[in-house]
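> call design_seq(struct)
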């Protein structure tokens, strides 16, 4: 599987869906414009609608989560940072849904934090 797209943002999401997806304290997402994204090997993908708004695309061979589409952000695709070969060209910019973070996890960096009902409201850090 290979991607070609210019990243738009890199964030850590602490919501329950993202924690369950990654099996970790959070998922690091790379957002890319859908129109600029090209995928080789797309026939190897299967999809699953995890919520009414979000569809995740997985590799049929190994089961890896490759990217997600959220109907609320139709022009953006979300890629888990771990699927990008060669590392990231930039650092994450913020934490979202911090009110949902795993109780055993402590955010120890100085990145901006967002929470509240939308997961995107500024919080006091």
């Amino acid at each position: 599987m290979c991607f070609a797209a210019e990243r738009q943002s890199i964030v850590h999401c602490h919501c329950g869906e993202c924690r369950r997806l990654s099996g970790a304290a959070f998922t690091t997402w790379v957002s890319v414009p859908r129109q600029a994204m090209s995928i080789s090997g797309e026939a190897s993908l299967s999809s699953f609608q995890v919520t009414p708004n979000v569809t995740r695309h997985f590799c049929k061979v190994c089961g890896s989560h490759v990217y997600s589409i959220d109907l609320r952000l139709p022009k953006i695709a979300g890629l888990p940072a771990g699927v990008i070969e060669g590392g990231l060209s930039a650092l994450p910019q913020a934490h979202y849904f911090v009110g949902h973070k795993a109780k055993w996890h402590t955010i120890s960096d100085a990145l901006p934090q967002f929470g509240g009902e939308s997961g995107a409201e500024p919080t006091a850090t």
